[in-house]
Every structure is written in structure tokens, then in C-alpha cells.
Amino acid sequence: MKIIRSSEKKKILRQLKEQFGIIKLPYLLLRFGKEKLRAYSGNLSTEELNTLDKNLRIENIGLYFAKQQTDGIRLTLDGTQLFKNQTTKNILNLNNKQAQEWLRGNDLDIKTNKSFKIFKYNNEFLGCGKSTGEKITNFISKERRVK
Predict the structure, then answer these.
(1) If we measure between CA atoms, which residue out of 58, 38, 37, 39 comes closest to residue 48?
(2) For residue 52, how far is the Cα from the chain centroid?
(3) Burial class (CB in 10 A: 0-12, 13-18, 19+), 64
(4) What pLDDT does 36 receive?
């Protein structure tokens, strides 16, 4: 676990604003591994979190909301929910058939510019995928897919 300092948090927020229009990040940000970003809004101070991590080895704390990749930030399903009131860019509205396919974990054959896209169906955010230009790759974990 690594607590993200304000300078790095500003870079992450700048990237979220550029990609998705997100302008506020009112959470303490934590990095687990090289890529996983978690948002923490609890009552523990940074010193207390560091002490716990040092003595107990914290595996997870906060909400896993994004994965920071070399080509951008990919929001998790929970991340799209966390920022649904702020998201203004790269939203794709799905029809019923596309939404069902997406929730089953299937990639979608939608031609669009290469970037991360957030999916919406009837005011509900359904996650984030990556467009190759020809199709959009699904990242919904197996245990969260509709059978």
C-alpha cells in the first residue's frame, strides 16, 4: 500500500478530467501494486494507515475504483458508479441488447475512436471498456457478470 501524495493526485485528477470530465476527487488515494487505485474516505489518518500497513500488512482498504495503465485510467464498475454524477465525457449509451451482452462479459462490436469508454443504459452506469477502434473490450470480472 502506498498513499498517493497531492502532486501525484493532481496528475491523476487531470487525467480523469481529460478522459471522463471528472473534476473532484475528494478521497485519500491509495495505490496497491503498480496500477490499482483505491479511494479511502474513512476516519483513519495517513499516519494510522501507514502504521497499520507496517504492522499488519494491509491487503485492501477503500474502494478499488480505477486501474492506472500506460494508455490511460480505466475505471472499474464501482468507479463508474462513484463518479456517475461527474462523468461528462466518453460515455456510450447502450441499447438493451448491447447492455445485456456487456453485463454477460462480452466485448461489443462498436466502432468508435480509440479510448476508454464508460457505458450507460437507462441512467445506469455499467462499467468501463477500452475501444480498439473496431470493438470495445470488456473488463467486468467473472464473478460480477450476469449469467
Answers:
(1) 58
(2) 25
(3) middle
(4) 96
